[in-house]
Amino acid sequence: KGKAKGPKGKKITLKIAKNCIRVCLDGKLRLDLSHMGITTFPKCILKLADVDELDLSRNMIKKIPNTIQKFEKLRWLDLHSNQLEDLPEAIGTLQNLVYLNICNNKLTTRNLPEQLNLLKNLHILNLGLNRLESIPTSLGALKELKEIGLFDNALTTIPKSVKNLPNLKKMNAERNPFPDPEQEEYTDPIKRVETLYLVQEKDLCSSCLKMCQDEGDKLNKFRNVTPSPSKKPSFPLLLTPNSSAKDNQEEWRVR
């Protein structure tokens, strides 16, 4: 019977794509094809490869071809909320990228290309809402990275090479199955007290020794006192709005 075909999606022509080019406030050209029901990467946009920004987010694209390397000037690439299961190796040739958003796709660790570590000018990388079991240590090569999104994956650890990136200011790794922090207590069962000092009686002066003995006697007397079960506690000095303080109700009101 063959494989069931997915939705055809909207066909993007060169004319449609040209009409979707916008000039940003900083004068950069942005090709915005987001939220257009696209299921396959439109080949026609390769003729518009001189744009600075490309937005293909919120579509149903399953594959990005290696021809993405033709966008040599690209500084900003948004592919979030598609159906991507892998990325092309050629993405590593986009040396001018400072922003890459591939959040909310179907990416696994195995299908992340090693060439991601070649994006030396990358400032923001969003890998959230995918199926990543681990983060490649090679991403520690992204020395200019300032923000990274790792939320909603299947991560149990984050490599030190990524956590210790020199310019990293923000990392969102929420909602991952990291080990319970409370379990770390079992690795060291000894509870340590920072300001506990133990001395012998012979090391104390006579006045300090007497003071310690007096305090000990008071504590022992307190422990030996057994409260009478029949006697109700009396609090003669306790004031409540409905008892002895009722003559002064004005003082209890909020002014």
From TrEMBL:
It comes from the Eukaryota. Residues 222-255 are annotated as: Disordered. One of its GO terms (cellular component) is cytoplasm. The keyword Acetylation does not apply. SMART domains: LRR_TYP (SM00369). Residues 68-172 form the Disease resistance R13L4/SHOC-2-like LRR domain. It holds the Pfam family LRR_14. Residues 226-241 have a biased composition (Low complexity). Keywords: Leucine-rich repeat, Repeat. The keyword Repeat applies. This is LRC18 protein. The gene is Lrrc18.
